[in-house]
Design goal:
The complex is a heterodimer. Chain A is mostly beta strands. Chain A has no helices and 8 strands. Chain A has strands spanning 5-8, 12-13, 19-24, 47-54, 57-64, 73-78, 84-92, 97-106. A 5-stranded mixed beta sheet of chain A has the order 2-8-7-4-5, with no helix packed on it. A 3-stranded antiparallel beta sheet of chain A has the order 1-3-6, with no helix packed on it. In chain A, strand 4 and strand 5 (57-64) form a beta hairpin. Chain A is elongated. By secondary structure, chain B is an alpha+beta fold. Chain B has a single domain (8-146), classed as SoxY domain (Immunoglobulin-like, Sandwich). Chain B has helices at residues 8-21, 29-32, 35-42, and strands at residues 53-56, 60-63, 67-73, 83-90, 97-103, 110-116, 122-130, 135-146. In chain B, the strands form 2 sheets. In chain B, strands 2-8-7-4-5 form a 5-stranded mixed beta sheet. Chain B has a 3-stranded antiparallel beta sheet with strand order 1-3-6, with no helix packed on it. The longest helix of chain B has 14 residues, at 8-21. Classes of the chains: A mainly beta, B alpha+beta. The interface between A and B is large, with 34 and 44 residues.
C-alpha cells in the first residue's frame, strides 16, 4: 500500500481538548462488483480496517466495506489523556498493513 | 467499444451495466440485499430513537462514486456514557453495509467525515449504539445522477 497522509489540527493541546485528524490513503478500493471492458469481474481488493491507537489503547476503528469510495478519506476526533504517540494503521484484504505515528503534547 | 482505451464514457457505461446487472434491475436490490436484517442485528431488535444522531449527505449526488458523508452523535464520550459503534447502511446498494465506526472515550467526540459509493438513488441510514445498549437512527434520501459502479 502507498504511504497514507495524516494531518492533525494541532499537535500541542490543553487537557480535555480534542484534535481533529484527517487521513487520506491512495487505494482503488476495488469492490468486486465492477466488470472490466471484457465483461470479467474485477477481483475485490479493498482496505478493510483503519485503526487509531493512543499509546497502545484503542481510540477509534473504522471497518471499511466496498461501499467506501476509492482513496479512502477520513476525518475524526481524538481526545488524548496526556502526551504520547498516536498510531494509525490501515489493513487491506491481503492482510498488508501500513502505519504512521504522530506525537501529541498535552499541556 | 471502439478500442480507444478506457475512456470516461466507457467507465460510465460500465457503471450503468453494473447497475442493471446487480440483482436484475433497479428496485429489486432493496428487497433482497438484506439491509433490514443488518440494521436489526445492529440494534439488537430494539427500536432506535430518531434523535441525538445526525447524518449529513447531499440531497443530490452527481457522482455516486464519491458522495461526501458526515455523521455526528451527541455524547459526552465518558467511560459510562459514550458512543460504542455506528453503522452506515445504503439501502439500495448491492452490499448495504457501507462502514462501521467503533468509538472509545479517547475519541472525545463522535464525529466522522468520509466519502461513500451509492449505486443509485436511495435512502441511507446511520445508526448508533451507545455504551448502555440504547440505539439511535437518522436517515437521508439521496438522488444519485450517475451511479457508483463500485458500491
Amino acid at each position: 500500500m502507498e504511504r497514507p497522509r495524516v494531518r492533525l489540527s494541532a499537535s500541542v493541546i490543553a487537557t480535555g481538548e480534542t484534535i481533529e485528524i484527517r487521513t487520506l490513503i491512495s487505494h482503488p478500493m476495488e469492490s468486486g462488483y465492477r466488470r472490466d471492458a471484457d465483461g470479467a469481474v474485477v477481483p475485490r481488493k479493498i482496505i478493510t480496517r483503519f485503526r487509531c491507537e493512543f499509546e497502545g489503547r484503542e481510540v477509534f476503528t473504522w471497518e471499511l466495506r466496498p461501499g467506501v469510495a476509492a482513496n479512502p478519506y477520513l476525518q475524526f476526533r481524538v481526545r488524548p489523556p496526556g502526551s504520547g504517540q498516536l498510531a494509525f494503521t490501515w489493513t487491506d484484504d491481503d492482510g498488508a498493513e501500513v502505519s504512521i505515528s504522530e506525537s501529541v503534547t498535552v499541556t | 467499444m471502439t478500442g480507444t482505451g478506457f475512456t470516461r464514457r466507457q467507465a460510465l457505461l460500465a457503471g450503468a451495466a453494473f447497475v442493471l446487472g446487480a440483482g436484475t434491475g433497479p428496485g429489486t436490490a432493496r428487497a433482497t440485499n438484506g439491509w433490514q436484517a443488518a440494521l436489526s442485528a445492529f440494534t439488537d431488535g430494539l427500536q432506535p430513537v430518531a434523535s441525538g444522531i445526525t447524518l449529513d449527505l447531499p440531497e443530490i449526488a452527481e457522482n455516486g462514486n464519491m458522495v461526501p458523508m458526515t455523521i455526528r452523535v451527541e455524547s459526552p464520550m465518558t467511560p459510562d456514557d459514550h458512543v460504542a459503534e455506528v453503522i452506515v447502511i445504503a439501502t439500495d446498494n448491492p452490499e448495504p453495509e457501507v462502514s462501521r465506526f467503533r468509538f472509545t472515550p479517547l475519541a472525545g467526540r463522535a464525529e466522522v467525515v468520509t466519502r461513500i459509493r451509492l449505486a443509485r438513488s436511495q435512502e441511507v441510514i446511520a445508526a448508533a449504539r451507545m455504551a448502555d445498549g440504547s440505539t439511535r437512527i437518522d436517515r437521508r434520501q439521496v438522488s444519485v445522477i450517475v451511479g457508483g459502479c463500485g458500491a
